[in-house]
Amino acid sequence: DTRVETHEFQAEARQLLRLMVHSIYSNKDVFLRELISNASDALDKLRLAHLTDSDLPADVSDLHIALEADRERRTLTVRDNGIGMTRDEVVGLIGTVAKSGTAELLRQLEESKDAAASQDLIGRFGVGFYSAFMVADRVTLLTRRAGEESGTRWESDGDGTYTVEQVGDAPQGTAVTVHLKPADAEDHLFDYTDPWKIREIVKRYSDFISWPIRMEAERPDGESGTRSETETLNSMKALWARPRSEVKDEEYHEFYKHLSHDWQDPLETVSLRAEGSFEYEALLFLPARAPLDLFSRDAVSGVQLYVKRVFIMDDCRELMPEYLRFVKGVVDAADLSLNISREILQQDRQIQLMRRRLVKKVLSTVKGLMTSDPERYRTFWDQFGRVVKEGIITDPDNQRAVLDIASFASTHDADEPVTLRAYVERMKDGQEDIYYSTGQSRSVLENSPHMEAFHAKGYEVLLLTDPVDEMWVESVREYDGKRLRPVNQGDTGLPAEDDGEDGEKARTERDRQESDFTPLLSWLREQLADEVKDVRLSSRLTSSPACLVGDAQDLPPSLERMYRAMGQ
Ligand code: ADP
Ligand code: MG
Where in this protein does the record put region A (predicted)? Predict the structure, then answer.
């Protein structure tokens, strides 16, 4: 059956393709990195499939990637003899964008009218296979799934449709051929059939790929002749196995981009080596930007598991807690079975020890940044603080460590977030507790009448506006022996309310006021009987006539909502 079927790209895929065709991304070289990265993944998958099922009828004798340039026809082919795809996989994987965050990306692109901002968004998303359309006006993909009889040919020129047809004699694996757009001086399109250009790109972006990337090239031979020779373009060294001092930052950065599909350099590189009875090496990265799907349910976590240099799995959640789900990297363990399953991972004690150590290392790295590079720490916290704070609740063992690296908006300085340590250090004489206020925005909190007494005393108040804040404040009793207290619940514990030289005078004064205001208070209680529990005189206000206060045991969010609903 050699019917050629024409299919439409899924709507989101079409939109992404259009962006690629119109080349909003200026660094077009990266298309080759994306195709090589896919080829490398396909080889990893085949090796693993073969290791776990030796009956798989696949050829694993010479797994590699081949680059074939044809200067006359202006094509470049990236060929692998890896796992390949079935027809349905081609349609499902290439014709649609299943990646989480796509809708969000497209929405933001729609809104952003600025080219630089759009590039930045695309870069954070990583468009993978479709990036071929930055340089090509047609892309052909020929593939055969390892173990299957026949193959599939896919082709598209990047408009709304693609074709698929069955082919009898495809080699195992996948060959992607890009038909290069005419070289256009204005477009700054390089000649991607030039062996020098290809060598340069592979060296820069894909040197660490653990499979050989080969290319046939003409070499001078004898007086005037040339002969064709196969070169291996990459060094194939597993970066995590090399001592940190021998690896250039750029190499780490390219490796990070390969792992994360991010087009931006990471914020920080973390490496770790454990020796002894359970050996492993880890190379982790803190991204510089939060991914678009940070809060999506189906976002994949970023840690890959290897066993003795063999790729085992992506998205290894057992190695990194959810609140550090943005950490990318590789963990290579020496003593695990290649057949290890997720179920076993979840129970394995060694894995748990490993995870504990990795978490501590990540947290201490961030702590280090706070002093060594406050600017970068600030970037980190701006991007990931909202997620990291989940750890205050979900990781009791590291609660203190997470609190130590956290910073919060406060009344002290509108632009500088404060750490709890700094807060405690500048507490006013006589101030016993750490005060905070939770709610939806800084301005609402700042202008709340609850704040008046604190303003008057010059006490700093933390302004907590992330949803997670409402939760963690409930689980933290104290920091450095100082209680955390909400400004809008129960007794504020402000010293003037009970203590001090003026205490006696203040109390008599209040007793006098109480009796003066008894009729008003009971009238108010009656009028508001359905709305509030009680109406009291308070010393917490300095200029507003009234404010709503919750009991210490009340839930703050519901109160907040009521408060706003009543027009404050
Ligand atoms: P990603 O690599 O982030 O998943 P891509 O757009 O690069 O996204 O690729 C989409 C999917 O197409 C891959 O996840 C993979 O399943 C499939 N694919 C792409 N290239 C190959 C290949 N050379 N061999 C096998 N499958 C491939
Ligand atoms: Mg890819």
Answer: 1-342
Supply φ then ψ for residue 292, to 5 degrees: -65, -20
Whose alpha carbon is nearest atom 4 of ligand 1? 128
Residue-level pLDDT at 502 = 53
Ligand index nearest the alpha carbon of residue 129: 1
Residue 328: which of 375, 260, 387, 279 has the closest Cα?
A: 260
Closest CA to 420 of 459, 469, 371, 478: 478
CA neighbours closer than 13 Å in the CB half-sphere of residue 116: 0
Question: If DSSP states are collapsed to H, E and C, what string results for 301-364?
Answer: CEEEEEECCEEEECCCHHHCCHHHCCCEEEEEECCCCCCCCHHHHHHCHHHHHHHHHHHHHHHH
Return the residue matching tokens 């019917």. 3
Residue 300, SS3? coil
Look up the ipTM and state it.
0.99
Cα 176 off chain centre by: 29
- Is the separation of the CB atoms in 44 and 311 below 8 Å? yes
If you search the block for the tokens 């468009």, which residue do you land on? 127
Is the pTM value of this prediction over 0.80? Answer: no
| Positions of the chain with pLDDT under 70 | 1-2, 23-25, 98-100, 123-126, 184-189, 297-298, 489-507, 539-542, 550-568
Question: Do 147 and 56 touch, CB atoms closer than 8 A?
Answer: yes
Residue nearest to atom 14 of ligand 1 (CA): 93
pLDDT digits (tens, 9 = 90+) for 247-282: 999 999 999 998 888 888 999 999 999 988 889 999
Model pLDDT, residue 402: 98
pLDDT at 566: 52
Which residues approach ligand 1 with their CB closer than 6 A?
34, 38-39, 42, 80, 82-85, 93-94, 128-129, 174, 261
Q: Which tens digit of pLDDT belongs to each residue from 178-200? A: 999 887 655 556 789 999 999 99
User: How high is the pLDDT of residue 184?
Assistant: 63
133 contacts 34 by C-beta, under 8 angstroms: no
Which residue's C-alpha comes closest to atom 19 of ligand 1? 38
Evaluated on CA atoms 211, 213, 216, 222, the torsion sign reads negative
Atom 21 (ligand 1): residue with closest C-alpha?
A: 38
Ligand 1 atom closest to residue 130's alpha carbon, by position in its atom list: 6
